[in-house]
Design brief:
By secondary structure, this protein is of the alpha/beta class. The protein has 25 helices and nine strands. The strands form two sheets. Strands 1-3-2-4-5 form a five-stranded mixed sheet. The chain has a four-stranded parallel sheet with strand order 7-6-8-9, sandwiched between helices. The longest helix is centred in the middle third of the chain and has 22 residues. It is globular. It binds iron/sulfur cluster (2 copies). One iron/sulfur cluster binds next to helix 4 and helix 6.
Length: about 425
């Protein structure tokens, strides 16, 4: 694509990066077929190519975002299916991240929209506040039928019962059982530790049982992904710096083989820290080191050879059919595709791919809260596709997808590590009790 940026504009490294990506786009349109919003809405401006045109026009003319640009950028799920499909190597993630930040900075949203986004950004990254908000939402849940739109969607997604308080993992070291084959830091996350602390517990049991020491650095918290996807670049940067500092200190003091992440949305963000901080005189190098060390949990388990040689013999998985729902951030953002399925199969499960597996389930960070109509349609389509595989349970690698699907799935929805942990000697996941 031809671009007309001035030399002065290209002096800004963020704009120069966008320009490289815009020039790489050859308008072929291959990405349209795999874009969930184009598939549903059929509007070119809700396709990757259409959004690329809007972003190009806005940046080239140094214009504040218009209502039209904000609408179509907001409707993008950041699922990155387009990035997987693009034959020209357009790094859509970097383009849309920059566009979201530009919209946030230059567009004045309607008051309610602004308030809602600010409230979410002040709650979600902070587990104490988020827990309190969910408790209040629990009180309002019986009235959710009276509320339409975003507020109704929020109440519908709030769990009916909050799990018990997350164990205080921060600062703890969990020693390997038997000979040590690795030492990793675990991101215990922000929203996940409130909604589903069982995922971190299963991860720690699974890793230590297979000879991996796990440390949770004292000061690591939210990685910043959730607010970054809302265009709140400064807040995301501050959260990322805290995370980089916490892991950098641990790696320097005692050594780390990997930073293990079990929320794939976060993993995609952390693997991109090297890019985000590339021009930062202080954080560029530490950020790049953190990105290079980061692995999705399934990726790490596969790397140390568990699927082939080391998985403890299955004790309880036999006979269960698992529909594997590939989270977008894992399959498109990190290109981790075969490992979770290979691990589940090695643990004794019968694994089924979901038809139209490239399509997002509608979760996408805060998308199901901010764009509930589109998110609902995507969820319905995903669940219909899952049902075609006739599974006993659904497995996925991202807590957002679990929350999105669980309410209407009719069968248990679990994290991949919960099934692997159970199959190799861990307790039966609570979601399965009384059902399997
Ligand atoms: S990230 Fe997903 S929703 Fe956004 S343009 Fe790409 S394919 Fe479409
Ligand atoms: S597939 Fe890639 S090159 Fe083709 S229109 Fe989409 S973004 Fe542009």
């Amino acid at each position: 694509m031809q671009t007309r940026f001035t030399a002065e504009q290209l002096g800004d490294p963020a704009v120069a990066d966008c320009e490289r990506n815009l020039r790489a786009c050859v308008h072929c349109g291959f990405c349209l077929a795999t874009c969930p919003t184009y598939t549903l809405l059929g509007d070119e401006l809700d396709s990757p190519r259409g959004r690329i045109y809007l972003i190009k026009d806005m940046l080239e003319h140094d214009r504040p975002a218009s209502a039209e640009v904000a609408l179509h950028v907001d409707r993008c799920l950041s699922c990155l299916a387009c990035q997987t499909t693009c034959p020209s190597g357009v790094h859509y993630q970097h383009l849309i991240d920059h566009a979201r930040a530009h919209v946030e900075k230059t567009f004045t949203r309607p008051l309610l929209d602004r308030v809602l986004r600010d409230v979410l950004a002040r709650l979600l990254p902070y587990p104490g506040r988020f827990r309190l908000a969910l408790r209040l939402a629990g009180l309002a849940r019986p009235f959710r039928g009276l509320l339409k739109g975003r507020l109704g969607a929020m109440l519908a997604l709030a769990p009916a019962r909050l799990p018990r308080q997350d164990a205080a993992f921060a600062g703890e070291i969990f020693p390997a059982v038997g000979p040590r084959r690795g030492r990793v830091a675990l991101l215990t996350g922000c929203a996940q530790k409130v909604i589903a602390p069982s995922i971190n517990e299963a991860t720690i049991r699974l890793l230590t049982r297979h000879g991996v020491e796990v440390v949770v650095p004292p000061a690591s918290g939210c990685c910043g992904a959730i607010v970054h996807h809302m265009g709140k670049a400064e807040q995301a940067r501050a959260l990322a710096v805290d995370t980089i500092r916490a892991w950098g200190d641990e790696a320097a003091a005692r050594g780390l083989d990997a930073i293990v992440v079990n929320t794939s949305g976060c993993g995609t963000e952390i693997k991109d820290y090297g890019h985000i901080f590339r021009e930062d005189p202080v954080w560029a190098e530490p950020a790049a080191r953190v990105s290079a060390l980061t692995r999705d949990i399934s990726e790490y388990l596969a790397e140390i050879g568990l699927a082939e040689i080391g998985l403890k013999p299955p004790e309880s998985a036999a006979g269960l059919t698992v529909a594997y729902h590939a989270a977008c951030s894992l399959q498109h953002g990190q290109k981790v595709i075969s490992q979770p399925k290979a691990l589940l199969a090695a643990a004794g499960f019968t694994v089924r791919d979901v038809p139209e597996g490239h399509l997002c389930c509608g979760s996408a960070g805060t998308y199901n809260l901010l764009q509930p109509e589109i998110a609902e349609q995507l969820k319905a389509r995903k669940l219909a596709n899952i049902a075609r595989t006739k599974p006993d349970v659904i497995a996925t690698g991202n807590v957002g997808c679990i929350t999105q699907l669980a309410g209407d799935a009719g069968i248990p929805v679990l994290h991949t590590v919960e099934l692997l942990d159970w199959a190799t000697g861990g307790p039966k996941p609570e979601a399965l009790s009384g059902k399997i």
